Amino acid sequence: AAPTVLACACRYGVPATAASITTAGGTGIVTGGLVELALSPICSQLASSVRFILHSWPLSSMLLRCIKGAALGWFVWWGSGRGMYHIVILPLIIVEMERGDPATLGAIDECVLVGVSLGLCLAHIVFPRQKEDVHLSRRGLFINFLFGDFIEGAYPFMERSTICNTAAGLAAALSGVVVCMFGARSSAYLPLPLAVLISDRPLAMLAAFAISVLVPCAAAVMENYCLGRVDMTVKTL
Q1: Residue 158: alpha-carbon gap to chain centroid
Q2: Which residues cross the membrane (predicted)?
Q3: Which of 29, 140, 155, 194 has its CA 20 to 30 A from that of 164?
Q4: Residue 235 has pLDDT above 70, yes or no
Q5: Which DSSP string corresponds to 173-187?
């Protein structure tokens, strides 16, 4: 529609600046009006439904809350590695935080992506398998801790090691359980200390972080230690 309006304005001798303002402004008014009148009620209802599912369902059953937390934690971790983060997960976080409140998915995002990545990076600083791992791990540790965003720093370790990958998935599910069991909410893309401080359940958030960091860290350290012992034995022989 905008090209047609612009062409008509030019055809009837409307100056270029006025034609551009009319086209741009008219497009915004029409689009905004249609969204407000037709789509806004539907989108508002959908957003309320998403928040209800994440916050209120199910409140009566501890077991169901644990299952929901494990499923959400595992899905966020699994989906982020398969191109679903910016298509599905991040929009859901934005919808949940529409009113400026901390989010369940925001807390899960920080734990299962940032915490897990930080744990794997920490392990490869403490006990690296290769010298090259240390530089990547230091960068990953720094960015994850201070900016709350660098799951990619752990991808090389998860791709080359089934143990690291399995431990990361397990930590994601367990930390999701803690978040949903205690109803902790926070925000994604925050430094880890700040994500804990703004949470409405800071102790639960801290416990979820501890699980998401320590489980993959311990698994990676043990694997690297065992592989190092094997390498030393082979060299000795």
Answers
A1: 17
A2: 71-95, 107-127, 170-191, 203-222
A3: 194
A4: no
A5: HHHHHHHHHHT--B-
Give the pair of three-digit tokens for residue 64.
């169901």
> Using an 8 Å Cβ cutoff, are 193 and 98 in contact?
no
Is the pLDDT score of 58 beyond 70? no
Q: Which position has the token pair 């090259």? A: 132
What's CA 74's distance to the chain center, in Å?
11
> DSSP secondary-structure letter at 102?
-
pLDDT at 5 over 80: no
The set of residues, in sequence order, having a beta carbon less than 8 Å from that of 103 and lying 6+ positions away, is 54, 93, 96, 97, 185, 186, 187, 188
**Burial readout 91-100 (b: 16 or more C-beta within 10 A, e: otherwise):** ebbebbbeee
Distance between CA atoms of residues 226 and 237, nearest Å? 17
